[in-house]
Amino acid sequence: MKQKRFLSRAASLGFYTLILRGASTVFGIWLSNTVGAEGAGLFQLVSSVYFLAVTFSTSGVTIAVTRIVSEQLAKGSPAGAKRAFRLGLLLSLILGLVASTFLFFCAPAAAEYWLCEPRAEIPLRIFSLGLPFLSTASVIRGYFLGRQRTGLSVNGDIAEQLVVMAVTVPLVTAFLPRGLTSVCIAMVIGSVASEILSCLYALFLCICFRLKKEGNAPKGIGRQLITITLPVAVGNNIRAILTALENVLTPAGLRKNGAAASEALSQYGIVKGMVWPVLMLPTVLLAPFSSLLIPEVSAAAATRDDRRVRLMTRRCLKATLLYAFLIAGFLFTFAEPLCAVFFPSAPTSGYLRALCPLIPLLYLDQIVDSILKGLNQQVASMKYNMADAAMRVLLVFFLVPVSGMRGWLFMLYAGTIFNASMSAARLIKVSHVLINWRVWLVRPLIAIVISCLLSAFLVKNAIAGMLFCIVSYIILLFAFGCINPREIRLFLHPAQKAEKKKIKA
């Protein structure tokens, strides 16, 4: 029944996430085409500093609250769960206020000396106003996620996305003739408005669905909160600083490589503001699993259910890889028609094809990171993320001024391969999961290559080719023994007896 509930929640969350991510992507495509590559680059540059402040304001508190609430409820201690939530909410509010104040007063210096873009000052100051609301809403979401009440927070996400679009579209349309600075301000105002609404909705949920206090909270909840939060916070903040530095150094390196200031910002905007959202859009189907895995794995680990941990790990890793190979081959084969529809005025197809081979590692890392945090391996995850971020900064600093965007692509490949391989190796070690490399990697790779080649040479219509690619890949997975009906039934319907038997792959 546990697996059935997990899949039910994942399916429900996946449906709503699909709607949200789809609407967000369509909105992002419209926004990028409206403001242009340079405008998208400016907004991404401002967002890099803002996300640094966001990382500090949340600082791992959300993950800690989710884990502790899940563990305490699994142990039958609602009082402990409630205390963890209250302490996490207080801590996040303090951090949000500190981050907001710091960003507001340091915005002029950050815009002039760090970003080398004076137009970023006002957007940064407006962004700072939303930080306390964002940090508060984030912890409340973590609390309901730990209670496995995912549907409650999803409604808030939907409302938040609607507010973003409702506010941003008319503002961008009105401010567009006034220049890129005004357009960037319009986009920031839309984001802040959505964060405020999301926080108000989250507080409303707290009032309506309060957890009843039963008994006394166990001792050490505050210590446990800090123990989980601190390594995650240190790792996330250092990585956020290094990532922000990477985002600043990239346009600067492109300028040193010979590109004009507007051209450098446009190249940066094409990759980060246009291609990257398309590349990560398919993770909408992985996001529910990655969100639910932390409380599920934490609860299983708290009750010492090692078999369930291995079972969940094996099935999630395999499903992620099979799905990622499909997406990588699909986007690589149909990059030109897709980019022609999404971004007709920008040269995006080449960058999309160049990044497609990274998709399996990018998607796998998302799932692996969630499982590691659920298994109390946040320190190891922190080390890998910090090393990855530091390596990326060094590569950007030395390679981009010499090789331009080729240097940036090499940096992305090196960092992604390093982080994904180290995290996966750590997960295999701590979970003792067995991997069938032929069934998980070799055969799916052969299947997607065959499917893409057949669709490219045999089917001339783009839409028909896309459908043919997906269907033929699924058929070949069955033919190669990568998946079978029995395994699908085991995944969708819990069978206690079957779980005791060995399941191939």
Quickly give the structural class.
mainly alpha
Give the strand tally: 0
Q: Report how far apart the termini are.
A: 23 Å
Q: What proportion strand?
A: under 5%
Low-confidence stretches: 494-505
Secondary-structure element order, N to C: HHHHHHHHHHHHHHHHHHHH
What does this structure look like?
With 505 residues, the chain is mostly helical. The protein has one domain. Helices cover 84% and strands 0% of the residues. The protein is built from 20 helices and no strands. Helix 3 packs antiparallel against helix 4 and helix 5 crosses helix 7. The C terminus is likely disordered.
Question: What key phrases describe this protein's structure?
Answer:
84% helix; disordered C terminus; mainly alpha
Quick overview of this protein structure:
With 505 residues, the protein is an all-alpha fold.
Topology:
Elements (H helix, E strand, L loop, with lengths): L1 H57 L2 H14 L3 H37 L6 H8 L2 H16 L3 H26 L4 H29 L12 H36 L4 H20 L6 H16 L3 H28 L1 H8 L6 H7 L3 H16 L3 H26 L1 H27 L5 H22 L3 H18 L5 H8 L3 H5 L5
